Structures are given as structure tokens and as C-alpha cells.
Amino acid sequence: MSTLTVPNQVPSVSEDCEQLRKAFADLLKALDKELSNDFERVVLLWTLDPAERDAFLANEATKRWTSSNQVLMEIACTRSSNQLLQARQAYHACYKKSLEEDVAHHTTGDFRKLLLPLVTSYRYEGDEVNMTLAKSEAKILHEKISKKAYTDEDLIRILATRSKAQINATLNHYKNEFGNDINKDLKTDPKDEYLALLRATVKCLIRPERYFEKVLRLAINRQGTDEGALTRVVTTRAEIDMKVIKEEYQKRNSVPLDRAIVKDTTGEYEKILLALIGHGDA
Amino acid sequence: MSTLTVPNQVPSVSEDCEQLRKAFADLLKALDKELSNDFERVVLLWTLDPAERDAFLANEATKRWTSSNQVLMEIACTRSSNQLLQARQAYHACYKKSLEEDVAHHTTGDFRKLLLPLVTSYRYEGDEVNMTLAKSEAKILHEKISKKAYTDEDLIRILATRSKAQINATLNHYKNEFGNDINKDLKTDPKDEYLALLRATVKCLIRPERYFEKVLRLAINRQGTDEGALTRVVTTRAEIDMKVIKEEYQKRNSVPLDRAIVKDTTGEYEKILLALIGHGDA
User: Fold this and answer.
1) Are residues B226 and B278 in the same domain?
2) Does residue A12 surpass a pLDDT of 50?
3) Smallest Cβ distance to B96: which of A96, A117, A128?
4) Distance from C-alpha of A45 to C-alpha of A49, rounded to nearest angstrom
5) Which residues of A are less than 8 Å from B89 in CB distance?
6) Is the pTM of the predicted complex or chain greater than 0.95?
7) Which domain of life is it from (chains A, B) (predicted)?
């Protein structure tokens, strides 16, 4: 049976033109709305207080596809313990549910195994480091990674529960003892999305400014800027560590972040981004 | 080579007696200390503020054997979300580590799988119930339990992340639809410690007063009172729900709790327990 049919009454050329005009008008309207949305989204995110903003971003992420898992991990690993907690409290207030409930419900398999302990963590934040533990846990990590047991529960336990200072000591020992950065050993299959999330987790925990530099770099250096990522990083880091992120960006790309933004964005959206990253302060 | 040797100078009978006397004296001293410790322990626990007390009990539990897993679960499931959170904060302050770090490090296998999400939960506490979700999750629980998949991650996810009101709705639907209380279906092997912990988890989440009644009953009705459990329940529930627990106890045992305590304990320990449960108020 044919799926292509000719109407009983063939329309006139002028009727065709009118229909095309209407269709294009609607398309332009949608496009226009889409364009102004970038600006509106920055304003919206910037207006929210940090805990509400994280709750909003996390909630959005739980409704999207695998790539949004990175947003959940980013919120879980780059905020302080109390900031993450306040985001969880804001989540209750805004969505009448717990964050972990939505994360657990909307993720599966390996991703859930990693994300659930990350978003529910309340890490100790002191500087104290137990070197004996660092050595024994570096060994555990190396054993698991050598066996490609990337979802091993001890590996996840170490990354999800230890303090950032302790993880840093463990990963320093890992490098000293076994020769490679852990993230190099976690790059056996560059296309594996779980491994990519695991590497990003490590980076967020010990070098957040490098993680954010990379997110910005990938958002800007591509066919069609990824405004979602650009807006997220700028609005969430503006008052935290944007200065260090800008320095990292300049070092890694040999071009200042503000110039890269000017090249890739326009209008009000460009202006507000530049204001937020402290254009002119650099 | 023999491990039993006779001293070069064989001691006289009077020397032997003196040594035995000293040894017994030390033993009695230790025993006496042990006995008075019951009282001291109530005073210690009662003196701490609730968050510190929970941190103390949880820390102690992470250092002990499997049976202490119940204490961790009890703290995780019978406190309000904010009380559990304050216990985690107190844990940082007291032990320079996170609670989940110690729980994850000191448990293994199925127990870790269940306990870690429980102690890190921050449940939504509103009354709203999603009946569609209750039905679909009751079905999931029934499927998993029918297959004896008691450590299934969806089963644990539901118990560890949903609000208590939602879990209650789910388990009501479970009973209506499938005929049994979920805990009856979880009693296939009464000796299985993991299943016992799972049943206790369900009870703590939806009928905490019945859970505590049972802990008290088992602590009192045995050869040699379990002072650890008795002290824990009395000191942690005195200001919360001891009145309902006493009512449950009377209903289930046909004897008031204070009379059972008088029968099983003595001295200062007895007096302080009676004062804490509100002797005479009943």
C-alpha cells in the first residue's frame, strides 16, 4: 500500500505558497524562541540560589539520556559536602521527592552503581590523610583496573566515600607505585561511556578546574556551540572558581576564555556570559 | 618442643596461694567494672546529644560483627532525614571520617549492598503518595521476592530511597494484591541473617514501635539480659516514642515494660532505666 497520496483536490500554486509561508513563519518563531532561550536560561539559572540551581539541574538531568549522567556526577563531586546536602534539601522542597530517589529510578546498571553513592555522599572534608590506607587502597584500585573490573564495588566505594584529600593521596600513590595516572589506565576504550564518566569523576574529585576547562573547551570547540554546558559551567562556577578555570582555559587553549566566548556567541547571551566570567578582570 | 615448662625454682604452696588470690582479685575487679559499666553506659549515652549518640553507636557498630549491622540499619531507618543527617555531621566531627566511609569499609557483600544506601539516604518526608508508583513497585518487589532475589538492586533501591509514606503505600498494595505481608514472604529461611536484617528494615521503616518492642522483648526474655540492646533502645527512644513502645510491649507480652525491667535488672542501672522510660507515668 502506497504511503504517498495526492489530495483529491489539488491545491493551487498560491495556496501552496501560503502554506509554505506559514510553515516557515512557525519555524522561525520556534528558532527565535530557541535563540532567546539561551539568554533566558542564564538569567533563570543565575537567579536561583545555588542549592535550588543544583536541584534544578539535577532534576533536569534525571529526565534525560545517559549523557546527563555527567551533570549528576558533576554536582555530586565538585560541590562541598554541605552544598551537596543543601541541594538535596532544595530537591525535597522543589520536587516533593528525594534526589537519590530520582537518580536511582532513572538510571540503570553500571551508571546507577556509580551515581547513587556519589549523589548521596557526605564526605569528610578535613585535610588529614591516612598514608597506610592510601597505599592499600591504591593497590586495590590497581588490581581492579588491571582486571578491567571497572564497576567493582570496592573501586566505587573508594571514590564515593573517601574524603577528597584521602583520594588525592591514594591517587598520588597509585601514580608513584604503578607508573601511570589512574585516568590513563581507565582509558582502555575511549568510546565506553561508563569509563568516560569514571574518568570525569576522578577529575572532578581531585582537579575540578581541569574538569571544567575541558567541559568548556568541548562546548565551544565544536560544530554549533553546546550552550547547555557553557551556561551550566558559567552560572554554577562564576562565584566559586571561575578565575582558576579561566587560567586553565588560557593555558590549555592559548586563547582567553572571553575571546573564545565572543567568537562563538552573540547578543544578550554573549554579554551576560562575559559579565559572569568577569570580562575585563582577566 | 614442649610448651609447658616448670620454673627452675618451684614456688612454695603459700606463694601459689598468694598468686591465685591476686589473680582472682583482678578478675573480680574486672567483673565489678563490667557490672557498673551498664549504669555508666546509660549515663554516657544519655549525656550525649542525640546526633552524637547516634554517631557513637554507629561508630561502635562499624567495629563489631555482623549482628551490629542491625544497629546501623536502625539508626538509618528510624530517625528523621534531618536527624540522620545530623548524626552524619556529628560523625565527621567526632571521628574525622564519614559514616558511610566506615560502613562501606567494614561491611561486605549483601550487607554492604543494603546498608550503604540506607545510611546515606535523605528521604523525602511529605505525606504525598503516588499510587501508580506504589502499584508498580509492589509488583517489582513481589517479582524479586518470588525469585528469591533478595539482594536485587531494585528491591534495595525501593526500600532505601522512597519516602516512608510511599513505602507504606507500596507495602499495603503488596499485601492487598499478593495476599501476604511482605515480611512473611521474606521469612523463607529464618536463620538467614541478611533476610532478618531485611525484615527488620521493613519494620523500622513502617512500624518502628513494633520493631523496638521486639528488640526489647528479645533483650529481656533471654538467658542473661542483653544490656547493650536494652540500654540503646531506652536511651535513644526515651524522648521520642517510648510511650508507644511501652504500649506495644504491654500488648505483646501481657506485662508492662517497667515490670519486666525490674525483674531483669538491679541497682542504679535498674533505677535509671525506669526513670528514662517514665516509670509511674504508665
Assistant:
1) yes
2) yes
3) A128
4) 8
5) 122
6) no
7) Eukaryota
